[in-house]
Amino acid sequence: MKLNLTRKEIHTRGGMLDHMMDALPNPSILVDENGLVLYASSQTRHLWEPNTEKRLNHPIQSEDSRAAVEETLRTGRASMDKLVHIKGHRTLSNMIPVFEDEEVIGVLCTITIQDIVMLKDMVAKLGRTTKDKEMYHTLSRVLSRYRFEDFLGTGDAAKKVIQQCRLAAKSDYSILIIGETGCGKEILAGAIHSERTKYRSKPFVKINCTAIPDNLIEAELFGYEKGAFTGAVSAKAGKFEQAADGTILLDEIGDMDIALQSKLLRVLEEREFERVGGDKVYPLQADIIATTNKNLAAMCAENKFRMDLYYRLAMLEIHIPPLRERKEDIPLLTEHFMKECGSRFSLEETAKDNLLLYSWPGNVRQLKHLITRLTVLYPNETVTGAVLEDYFKIGSGAAVDIKNEREAFQNFDSQEQLKPEDYSLKSVEKAHIQKRLRANEGNVLKTAKELGITRNTLYSKMRNYGITN
Fold first, then answer.
1. pTM of this prediction?
2. pLDDT level of residue 466 (50, 70, 90 thresholds)
3. Among 229, 219, 234, which Cα is nearest to 274's?
4. What CDD domains does the database record attribute to this sequence (predicted)?
5. Where are the beta strands (DSSP E) in 359-452?
6. How far apart are the C-alpha atoms of 131 and 272, rounded to whole Å?
7. CA distance 61 to 65
């Protein structure tokens, strides 16, 4: 699909093109070959008020939309039903190239669904018919179209995780993704699914092993036949059946009841299952990805998790580092969330320092929550370091670890004393590492534990700072 127009036509206001865009039921914008917004439809102007004039003749503000437009300008190919993040909402958008002769001179962007998550929730609450259920699963598949680019990070730790996931996606083995809450396990699981299915619309079925009661999870996983138990007035397909030849995500597998673990192991080994109360055998065609925030190996030693199931799931095991171990990505993540939320606040230098000093027990999800909070509470203001210290004190439910970090930096030995011009975070961190290593007589493992980081992370920092032990 494409439009054939001239440069004069797309730069002339009040003509047929503008009237056509205003007649569309959904918001739309026209962008030129340089990525500047030439025209916004009446639907779009209504959403932009009172800042419409500030957005015309400027680049698109949404990072996702801008990237999609640049791709269409570069390739000259239309992109339909593209998942685009706009101001915190996940939308479906169409990118239609505008040609003059054989040259791309612009892009017509239209939003077909303004909030997929909201629509999916409405269908889930109101849907009763078979078509409603089909729509729900279609929306679920659309929302699962994560890309590896959605896992933001330019540091070595993030690059290593993405590389491991890309390699894992080339196989059909079961994958276990381990990481703390809020560090991006579902994003990477969805990206692996998208890569494996080559972005075709195959099911991506998520099973939250924590949210489903133990007495219902077997029926949810494998389905049930009519009359299988009280209340089973009709047969129902389970999650494994719904997944077909797509992907099943066993989210927080460490919380699954150990009795059900035996049944799951049998299904994974035999690649088949039966509905509860039935004897018909259904083949398991879907790929399996499991996630957990727990140490399953330790749970196996305590007989809280089946070791044979652990090895079956962890044919490929990927560990996602917590945000405190990849703080070099915090500025990038902060900037991304500010753009996503349409933030208009600015951060004082001490506030930026505090973002790096904090330990982030809630990881990336907590950082996003913070940016959303600041966007609402501090529009057009400068956020100070004191504001963030108050937030961290509330959010952590404990004493602010920022203050502990600052106090730890105040009593350096003479060899570590910093000059005022060198009082940067890197200089302070280097000096603090040197001091703790000397205090621990060069014991790297002990020092790493004191600093709250892994031994590998400490070795990496020592190499970066030129610290010899």
1. 0.62
2. confident
3. 219
4. AAA
5. 382-383
6. 27
7. 8
As a whole number of angstroms, the distance between CA 168 and CA 164 comes to 6
Tokens linked to 321:
């580092």
* 41, 27 contact by CB (below 8 A): yes
For tokens 């389970």, name the residue.
238
Of the listed ranges 43-57, 169-183, 403-417, the least confidently predicted one is: 403-417
Element (H, E) at 37: strand 37-40
Q: Half-sphere exposure of 86 toward its Cβ, with a 13 Å CA cutoff?
A: 23
pLDDT tens-digit profile of 236-278? 888 999 888 889 999 999 999 888 899 999 999 999 999 999 9
DSSP output for 351-391: HHHHHHHS--TTHHHHHHHHHHHHHHHSTT-EEPHHHHHHH
438: enclosing H helix or E strand: helix 425-439
Query: Per the structure block, which two tokens stand in for 219?
Result: 């029926």
* Rg, C-alpha atoms of the chain: 26
Do 221 and 253 touch, CB atoms closer than 8 A?
Answer: no
**pLDDT tens, position by position, 220-240:** 899 999 988 888 888 988 899
Provide the CB-side half-sphere exposure for 117 (13 A, CA).
7
The residues, ordered by sequence, that sit 6+ positions from 381 with a Cβ below 8 Å of its Cβ are 345, 346
Q: Which residue has the tokens 């049930």?
A: 224
Following DSSP, what letter does each residue of 305-318 receive, concatenated?
Answer: S-HHHHHHHTTEEE
Average pLDDT across the chain, whole number:
83
Q: State which H helix or E strand residue 241 sits in.
A: helix 239-243
